[in-house]
Design a protein that fits this description.
Layout lengths: L1 H22 L6 H20 L4 H14 L3 H10 L9
Helix pairs in contact: 1-2
């Protein structure tokens, strides 16, 4: 569905812009382009947000950690960290 909306956006706005260029000023074709563009952006963002799950988040975190410039330091801290919590007496 997103691909269909993107194709319609490009096709219709191309025709409107070409028609407006042949007519000359005022440049009214920018208004449907911007309005529809904002709505299409919302559609794209909602589509991408629906694709995010725990597995994606974990994979993204691993990718970022692997690309980290200070990856060795992070791993050293992780190995040497003491995660035990002292209980009060």
């Amino acid at each position: 569905m997103l691909r269909l909306h993107l194709t319609a956006f490009v096709a219709v706005n191309t025709v409107l812009t070409l028609f407006n260029l042949m007519q000359g000023p005022p440049w009214w074709a920018v208004w449907p382009l911007m309005g529809w563009g904002v709505l299409l952006l919302v559609h794209i963002l909602s589509h991408r947000a629906g694709m995010i799950d725990d597995a994606w988040a974990e994979q993204r975190a691993l990718d970022i950690r692997a690309k980290s410039y200070d990856n060795n330091h992070i791993e050293e801290i992780r190995r040497s960290a003491n995660f035990s919590v002292d209980k009060p007496s």
